[in-house]
Amino acid sequence: MLRITALMENTPSENKALINEHGLSLLLNDGTHRILFDCGSGDHFIYNAHKLGIELDALDAVVLSHSHYDHAAGFRDYAEAGYKASGLYVGKGFFERKYAKEGVRYTDLSAGWDESFARTNGFHVHTVEGKMEIFPGVTLYQGFPRIHREETIPKRFVKETAEGFINDDFSDEIAISVKTEKGLAVIVGCSHPGIMNMIDEIRRSTGTEIYAVFGGTHLMEADDERIQRSIDGLRAAGAKFIGMCHCAGLHAEEMAMNELGDIASGLSVGDTAIIC
Question: What is the domain-level CATH number for residue 194?
Answer without folding.
Answer: 3.60.15.10
